[in-house]
Amino acid sequence: MEKESLLAAISEDLERIEAALAAVQASQVPFINEVSHYILFAGGKRLRPLLTVLCARLCGYEDPRIYELSVLFEYLHAATLLHDDVVDGAEFRRGRRAAHNLWGNQATILVGDYLYARALRIAVEKGNFEVLKVVTETTLLMSEGEVLQLLNVDNTGLTEEEYEEVIFRKTAALIAAACECGGIAAGASEAERKALWAFGRHLGLAFQITDDLLDYLGVSTETGKDIGTDFKEGKVTLPLLYALQNSNDGDRQRLLSLLRDPEPTPQGFEEAFKIIEKNQGFERTRQRAQREIEEALEHLYRFPAHPVRDLLEGLTRYVLIRRK
Amino acid sequence: MEKESLLAAISEDLERIEAALAAVQASQVPFINEVSHYILFAGGKRLRPLLTVLCARLCGYEDPRIYELSVLFEYLHAATLLHDDVVDGAEFRRGRRAAHNLWGNQATILVGDYLYARALRIAVEKGNFEVLKVVTETTLLMSEGEVLQLLNVDNTGLTEEEYEEVIFRKTAALIAAACECGGIAAGASEAERKALWAFGRHLGLAFQITDDLLDYLGVSTETGKDIGTDFKEGKVTLPLLYALQNSNDGDRQRLLSLLRDPEPTPQGFEEAFKIIEKNQGFERTRQRAQREIEEALEHLYRFPAHPVRDLLEGLTRYVLIRRK
After folding, report:
1. Arch. (CATH architecture) of B3-321
2. Contact B215, B229 (CB under 8 A)
């Protein structure tokens, strides 16, 4: 499926998701709405609500109330972005200044708390206890994942399994939950729910692995983020992890010393980039993302052929070739 | 009811609450347990779970599962304490170093998120949708209240109504929810639930007003906090608000200039203290707390006479004379 036909096929859903987001009852505190608006309407891809809507439809659910439910995942996502911004000290997010640089850490933390509470209120309002179970379980996993990631900064001995655990909790768990909750809304069977969850899990892993790859290979004007921030912050992601595994002693020592440079330079990053490239760090990362895509599709293929299945397949394949 | 007989009457409940807190399933991430333990077992009064247990009993509910449910309010409270610590930049909490000074802002924010998610999971595990409704509604109010408080720092034109709104959201809403959820667990009527909520609301207002008074009048070794931090941070609470209303132009100008001193001194605080005292700031604050106590008791008296009602009355009256 070509990018253009994919976009055409989801454009109506995206419009209705935007409308549902705009329709969520605002806070009585105007300042909260200002910050929320900045983070919620900053050009997000709406991947999570879109997955909820499409997974519900795949299970035969056509009720438009799905849009109202689906946006809770965008709220949850926005809440984690705000706390991430503070924790990472990121300067930019989606090509704009990160929220904490505009409103300070204090307000950013508290509006994050608000968006999280708002997300749970949507689940309560929709009256679906099963959705609430999945959502609270997921937020627990996510908060543990954020802590794990923080503890693993500078851990150059990080294994591939540990890396996977972090990105599962940090990114894939919420995407898996968004998919499963589409199934729940549709009254899907236990087996279907599990398949949707597993589909979302592998899609989410591929998504985050690609994100980590774009942090090296992306173009700043396209991704809206600085390039090389992970490396500059000493964060070990898959390209570096593979390169460290693959390199000879000389390359490994050089990589580690560049990684630990307290004042990283563009030249240092360029040198590290070349060492990672030479040691197949990017190539193997791309292959790993590809494998996750294939696994995601295996779970998707448990559902009978259907135009919505094709759409989900197209979205899944697009994750790998996206440039932002 | 004397303090000693009050303590004796609640000692078994407090023990069972401690046991329930200790029995909550730990995180798989040891570091999270370390921070959680520090904040959860730092000598908290367990007021919120105790109110849930006693309010349930007042409505005739004796099932020991109430202890398991009640601790969700201690988890929620601990989560807000962690985020408060970061937002306030407080140095001490309950006589020990504030969490963010030990583990840094990043970990403190994220463990706060974890405790919040854990609290909601307890509500989900207990399977009570009504409790979840009240809890999510309350967390929404609370997060808005925290933002309001942040926006009101330095607002010397704060009215008594605005102050009440902030402390309701910040403190009283959670205490009211803890009381109401005791009633929900007991299957109380709508009228009983409302009475418990209103009782908790006024009790919570009295509690926070007394807290704000102790920030001026307390003894640091008893409260475990620095004295005068609100004033030094430019935070307008009731004693100052009343004093500003009551004082002549000279006193008001002097108070405002001391409040805005970018480098506050102990001498400056002492001078401000005397001006507030002279203008009945403390006296009127105490009277206001007393009125909240009386209002709380009015709602409590809607329930028939009962030893548990006496206990709740004793606890309520104790709020005003507590020294920490």
Report:
1. Orthogonal Bundle (1.10)
2. yes
